[in-house]
Amino acid sequence: MREALQQRLETALQACYATGVLTSGVAPEVQLEVPGNPEHGDFATNLAMMLARAERKAPRQVAEALVTALGDGEGMWRKLDIAGPGFINFTLAPLAWYRVLNDIHRLDGRFGCCDAGAGRKVQVEFVSANPTGPLHIGHGRGAAVGDTLCRLLAAAGWNLTREFYYNDAGAQIGNLALSVQARCLGIEPGDERWPADGYQGEYIKDVARGYLAGEKVDAGDQHVTAAGDPQDLDAIRRFAVAYLRREQDQDLAAFDVRFDVYSLESALYTDGKVDAVVRQLIASGHTFEQDGALWLRTTDFGDDKDRVMRKADGSYTYFVPDVAYHLDKWQRGFQRVINEQGADHHSTITRVRAGLQALNVGIPQGWPDYVLHQMVTVLRGGEEVKISKRAGSYVTLRDLIEEVGRDATRFFFLMRRSDAQLVFDIDLAKQQGNENPVYYVQYAHARVCSINRNAAEQGVALPAAGEVDLDGLTLDEELALTRLLARYPEVVAGAAEQLEPHRLAFYLQELAAAFHSYYNRQRVLVDDPAVSRARLLLVNAVRIVLGNALGLLGMAAPERM
RNA sequence: GCGCCAGUAGCUCAGCUGGACAGAGCAACGGCCUUCUAAGCCGUCGGUCGGGGGUUCGAGUCCUCCCUGGCGCGCCA
User: Fold this and answer.
1) Is the ipTM of this complex over 0.90?
2) With a 7 Å cutoff on the CB, does A434 touch strand B?
3) Is residue A17 within 8 Å of residue A62, measured between CB atoms?
């Protein structure tokens, strides 16, 4: 529809040049937008305003020339206006819109999908929590944003790989092992023998109990049986990592978040990929030694200071395996990689990209992409819940899902742009009333299903694509609802393109509102069977789109509530 | 001090990558259930888009300088 209009505008412009009504000969790109105000028609173009300067005429004068050249459009539009500073507004014939209802029924679950990705490979890494404790609410936001991003990219035709990276090596894992060992030995936080940067959370006690009891843990391809010996720090470490990884996997499964590939930091060491990348960086000439450490001159690539790669004690800082990991992603053929992570780690971006540039292996500048999410604060009873990671007091994702439910949790995480801070109001999320937008959108879906049940009782068959005389739809609100449905594919494409999953949540609320309003004003099942069937076609198109959008958000579309 | 992200209605936030009088939800107030689910609908109230300059036919949106809040600035991740 948009393309057809663009075509006609270009033809009209050329006609103006041919007749000499317009003289500049410039051909700007024809932009068509959907106006927010329905009085401004279905599509609007600013073409006349873009030409005005070159033509040295008032925009409205240019617009008049174009409108004359456009003619009647052979019935495509009902009305053409020149408005405001020089917009040309197209009001299309209703039938042109109603045809989309047949498209929706024909495509069903695939309505909204497109082929923008053209089957190209993209990898999305998200959550990537350290296996040192349970997933907290911040990880939950990362999981919701990352997962919906994945679903969006898949819907947009990308060949998607979902990946989780475990930082199961390094200093913090050492702290974890020491903390579990301390608990095994009955040492409490506060005791002078308690490790300096130990994890104090209650869950450490559970790990210690499991270890002493000789428990067996399966997590991914890791299978660990506890040695039970409190002196064997290495065995404790292996057990603790597997134990906490299993916990995280369970929580993510409960959140309906799954991954295709799990990558372990420790494997980068054992496979020699870390050493290899260090050798390459040294060979690149971007490193130097100072104070007993090996440094990477990241300032060569826009960082504000150089960074230590290998510490004086011989171990590597975290970003070295990160660089090795991302080189590995590149070598696996992912020309597009998106990392979803918390904004508190945004300083890694410059470092990882600098390391990859230093390797000089043809990785483009600015690769990979990042989507950052800002902090989440928790509100309960109107009070902010204080979070202390060291003391281990924080809201876990597991608690959240159990308390407010998976759907509400996911929706709340996606109700805001990811780079805006989020206040998670637990009381509101739990509420089953009209203040809670989660049920508002699901209720709209359930209502259509309810109409369908009534139709079945009355022996009215649900219409399929192309079976209905669209003349049964005559009301302004039916046209408005249809136009909203027609916009859905653009919403999906835009959200995938801009990596902004929250757009779906807003669209969903808008569509639900339009449907609820229609439902309250008009009956679907009326005496006139032609009208009933046309309306059934319309409301079931709403049902399909609601279901598709809820699916992209990882939420259920209930048939009754 | 430097970097990143924010500052839009009383509150929480959108604003489609510059367009036509700035929107929604909640809160407040007033209405609507003998008809497909009232977890719903309709109406009223409410904003100098943090502030100053600039670019543009046109700026909440772009540039610049200030102010405020959050995060980061480690041989932690």
Assistant:
1) yes
2) yes
3) no
Asked if residue A433 keeps its beta carbon closer than 7 A to nucleic acid strand B, the reply is yes
Q: Which residue is nearest to nucleotide B22 (CA to C1')?
A: A36
Q: Taking the domain A2-92, which CATH number applies?
A: 3.30.1360.70
Please state whether strand B lies within 7 Å of residue A302 at its CB atom: no
Query: Strand B: which positions are within 7 A of a protein CB?
Result: 2-7, 12-17, 19-21, 23-27, 35-37, 39-42, 57-58, 70-77
Tell me what the pLDDT averaged over chain A comes to: 91
Tens digits of residue pLDDT in A233-283: 999 999 999 999 999 999 999 999 999 999 999 999 999 999 999 999 999
Mean pLDDT of A466-475: 93
Within 10 Å of residue A528's Cβ, how many Cβ atoms? 10
Q: Is the dihedral of CA A71, A75, A81, A87 positive or negative?
A: negative
User: What is the pLDDT, as a whole number, of residue A390?
Assistant: 52
Contact, A437 CB vs strand B, < 7 Å: yes
- Domain ranges in chain A? 2-92, 126-266+374-430, 434-552
Evaluate whether the domain defined by A126-266+374-430 bears CATH number 3.10.180.10.
no
List Cα–Cα distances, A226 to A265, A318, A557, in angstroms: 22, 28, 43
- How far, in Å, CA of A32 to CA of A229, rounded? 71
Q: pLDDT of A535-552, one tens digit each?
A: 999 999 999 999 999 999
> What's the rounded Cα separation, in Å, for the pair A302 and A264?
29
The answer to whether the C-beta of A84 is closer than 7 A to strand B is yes
- Residue A291 CB lies within 7 Å of the nucleic strand B: yes
The pLDDT value given to residue A443: 95
A33 touches strand B (CB under 7 A): yes
